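ok so heres the complex, two chains, lmk if somethin looks off
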Amino acid sequence: MNPNPKGETVTRRINKTIVYIVCIFLAVLSIFPFWIMFVNATRSTAEIQSGLSLLPSSHMMSNLRVLLDKSFDPIQGFLNSFIISSSATILTVYFSSLSAYGLVTYDWKLRKPFFTFILCVMMIPSQASAIGFYQFMYKIHWTNSFLPLILPAIAAPAVVFFMRQYLLATLSLEIVEAARVDGSGEFKTFNRIILPLMMPAVATQAIFAFVANWNNLFMPLILLTQKEKYTMPVMVSLLRGDIYKMEFGSIYMGLALTALPLFVVYFLLSRYIIAGVALGGVKE
Amino acid sequence: MRRKGVSYAKFGYIFTFPFVLAFLIFSLYPILYTAVIGFTDMQGLIPKPIHFLDNPFQNFKDLLFDNVSFRKSLINTGLLWIINFIPQIALALLLTAWFTNKRLNIKGQGAFKVLLYMPNIITAGTIAVLFSSLFAYPMGPMNSLFELMGWSDAPIFFLQDKTTARGIVAFIQFWMWYGNTMIILVAGVMGINPALFESAAIDGANGFQTFFRITLPSLRTILLFTLITSMIGGLTMFDIPQLFLAGGPDDSTLTTSMFIYGQAFKGSYMYNRAAAASMIMFVIAAVLSSLVFYLMRDRDAEKLKKAEKTYRKAAKASAAREV
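and the predicted structre for the whole thing:
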């Protein structure tokens, strides 16, 4: 054992053990349901019903076949979700950075009221305007189009707020002045100089915007009625339907397929994601 | 020769214009439209001319006083939020106290954070369907586990019981969010001036005293912020209860968002009633948001402004006296 001159007391060692036990228990609790999901995706329905197993079986392909036979098209769903999420993410980070830059750099009359306005609209839930939004889209024949899921991303108040805090802390207006002296136009300054400087903030916000759009269920569920337009989360709701009533193996397979891309992204970027969550909380 | 400075003020308007335009079209107009629909008789799949009701508040009155389902949905939403938030904040605070305690010096915090936060990133719909499969009756993973551990003799029909169903929905919500809350709180503690902790240590404060006398009071703003964002998130809770049991059993997991969705898009096409319900939700969210806005206002700037105002007033008064 490691010698401890100051003497780590017995109680502290017991406390430490309790802390580790609780943390390991919580970590297992985080993994367990997903583990069961991936394992059961490889087991037949009969095996699933006969008991719990932590080891995979050999029915992955047959589960996949049953799943795909019943109008579940994970590749189409993946593509739809990807098109919507990536377009919305690009719009969100670009226009939010632009608005934040406008807020921080220029001295305009409505600057303060605009910031107050952003704070006010930050928390409006999309459900509150859903009925009017749906009727509006129905009238201009935009249901079953991806546009109503992408274009609203231009106005993302929470992201503008975050970007403003970031710029306030990092941007020195001398850079902007220097660019002006060199004859750079305002848009060019933003696109060529400021945006690259904002990359750490842009990357963080891009990850969160992408995941939020990817996981969005309410709006696509309302707007998309054609099966070939379904996004991943809407496809998940198919798994709840009667067509898979007793096909547990393929239900787990469907769930695993919808979760897999997120797991890959998460384990590649977890360090940035955790850091981003921490930043988002420090709102002062 | 000094040139007169060019005014760049117009770029402030130009750069924020796309945001404002998108907000007006995709947020403000739909909200106003929703509000208007709430006062009309708009129903049915086929669009027909809509009329304002004789009593414009009829839809709201019906919802609040005569609609059992809507009232149930409000109560459920509140209940589900409370039974997930209290354990969530309690566990997050406990973990924060442990992770930031230098004397405990917990190893592997990074890995724990990654694992505890993980459920938050996975599609809520996927998690809801996963849990409904895990709790399947008569044979599912949970029933197998209960049997294996000897906790039950006969299979349990978890999802038929109101309390269990609500408990599971609240648990999923808790399980998905405590990691997020914990990371925010740990970051908050890291932001506290270390001198405070040092002087507490010199004064001989123990772990409990340090946590309750220094850490918690310093986290006040972050805690309130977490509370209110969680309240608004809870108010709009949809994905998990919708895909877990679609509101059942006996409407015990029906939330307000699901009520709105059900009224408008699941066969009955009662757009006016759904719109009125949305407006009630909007008002609740607006009250909560203004609360957070009030809490997060810049206190120092406000004080400065006030001081400036009184100073200016005094200056004016003295100027007037001089005349």
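quick notes: The CA atoms of residues 249 and 277 of chain B lie 22 Å apart. thats all i got rn
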